[in-house]
Amino acid sequence: MIVIVGAGLAGLSTAYHLSGMPYRLYEREQEVGGLCRSYRKDGFTFDYTGHLLHFRQPAIKELVERLLAGQLQKHSRKSFIYSHRTYTEYPFQVNTHGLPPEVVRECLMGFIATLTRQPSSIEPKERSFKQWILDNLGEGMAKHFMVPFNEKLWQVSLDELTSDWVSWLVPKPELKDVINGALGIKDKAFGYNPSFLYPAANGIRVLPESFLPGIDGVKNGVELVEVDTKRRRALFHDRQRGESREEHYESLVSTIPVPELTRRCLDFPAHLKEAAQGLRWVSVYNVNLGVSREQVSDKHWLYFPEPEYPFYRVGFPMNFSPSLGRAGCSSMYVEMSHRPSERQTPEQLIARARAGMEQAGILRPDDEIVVADVKDLHYAYVYFDRHRARALPAILDELERRGIYSIGRYGRWEHTSMEDAIGQGRQLAERLRAQGVQSVPA
Ligand SMILES: Cc1cc2nc3c(=O)[nH]c(=O)nc-3n(C[C@H](O)[C@H](O)[C@H](O)COP(=O)(O)OP(=O)(O)OC[C@H]3O[C@@H](n4cnc5c(N)ncnc54)[C@H](O)[C@@H]3O)c2cc1C
Question: Ligand 1 centre from 206 Cα, in Å?
């Protein structure tokens, strides 16, 4: 028997691709989707912050397009950075045109200086993210966007983060592109998502839900509480029924955060348990707003590097799916990072979001907010730091030795996208199929 824990995209995809093999899929929440969910409130549909589909793997794109046939729309990205009271296109490094001339000059001079430097010999998992930025983009871009934006997002000095994840998320441009960008000449698209797909209606929840007809049921409202890795028994608690139930497994596929999983493993080596508790991450408050004015912005989403704005990103869902809100209104998601132990009340967060948006000229003082709701995404962005680089491989190896496959965004403790989560589920299912896992008698 294969037991899958978590019905986010990674767990759902594992189950979907295991078809024909014996498995059970457990999910703590009453609905599937994990982070990739949407909810309705007073005539608006919100995701747990905007979730846009961009693909690098043709096989996963083909699968999603098949599962959501006729439901997806393609959009050309309209994402901008708001700084110096100006909008410039994303990504910053190839779009400085429009910023004050002294800022453009600092960015250009800094970038040019990087081109004559010796390439760094320090391994990415040892080199700090800050150093990566200085080495690859230069001091001007570091000062005017990369450092303030990322320190707001990560809530930590960039000296503490490593650079072993940046290659595809932070594109390094060529000199010609940087110069074109400073002069306002556009001759190619940049970044990992110059266009994206999004469901025409009902929000991103339609993606996890599209897996359901292809899988053999999900046990919702049931939480993994304990694992005896030696005897290969997993203990679950069914919240609604107030019952516990034990499962014998040959393989356990876990998509829950590594520190949560190892804490539940009774007989896992103490030093690895402790190492897993040392993994760090940042949480995100997702403030969702409905405003009684049409098109408060014509953009898809905006980045805010400057410290006077409390949010790092704001998006406008009705600009990529108008049916997500009431006619004559706009909706927006506002993202504010916080350290996992720090708390603010929804009232404080909504007031700060509104004040910042008025300061940026997006909301007007007389705009009426007709819906306001806050979600706290406890595990949002994991830290790639030196501890992760040292500790994680040993933790994942030991789990696997005990028949536990930890996958997904928080199972592998990485910046997994929706596409990656689906891809990891598929890959693991293929591996388990090849191993020919059998049912284990109770
Ligand atoms: C702010 C933010 C914005 C994002 N935007 C995008 C985007 O635009 N595009 C994109 O491609 N990706 C985006 N992502 C990434 C995307 O959300 C994830 O890669 C994907 O949803 C991860 O799926 P998963 O299955 O790995 O994890 P999860 O979605 O976290 O699923 C894990 C599941 O396990 C369940 N669970 C936890 N503990 C237990 C337990 N003890 N017992 C039983 N069940 C349990 C949870 O309830 C959850 O359903 C974003 C992520 C964040 C944080």
Answer: 15
State the Rg of the chain over Cα.
23
- 38-77+193-202+281-382 under CATH 3.60.10.10, yes or no: no
Atom number of ligand 1 nearest to Cα 380? 53
Q: Is the pLDDT of residue 246 over 80?
A: yes
Ligand 1: which residues within 6 Å by Cβ? 5-11, 26-29, 34-36, 49-52, 223-224, 255-256, 260, 284, 377, 380, 408-410, 416-419, 421
Instruction: Tell me if 177 sits within 8 A of 404, measured CB to CB.
Output: no
State the average pLDDT over residues 162-166: 87
Is-contact 82 208, C-beta < 8 A? no
Query: Looking at domain 2-36+205-279+384-435, which CATH architecture does it have?
Result: 3-Layer(bba) Sandwich (3.50)
CA distances, 249 to each of 241, 332, 437 (Å): 23, 44, 10
Question: Does residue 234 contact residue 246 with C-beta atoms inside 8 Å?
Answer: yes
User: Which residue puts its alpha carbon closest to atom 41 of ligand 1?
Assistant: 224
Tell how far the Cα of 155 is from the centroid of ligand 1, in angstroms: 20
User: Residues spanned by CATH 3.90.660.20 within the chain?
Assistant: 38-77+193-202+281-382
CB 412 within 8 A of CB 384: no
The string of pLDDT tens digits covering residues 349-383 is 999 999 999 999 999 999 999 999 999 999 999 99
Q: Which mutation among 204, 260, 418 tests ligand 1's pocket best, with the greatest number of atoms within 8 A of CB?
A: 418
All CATH 3.50.50.60 domain ranges in the chain, comma separated: 2-36+205-279+384-435
Q: Which atom of ligand 1 is nearest to the CA of 33?
A: 49
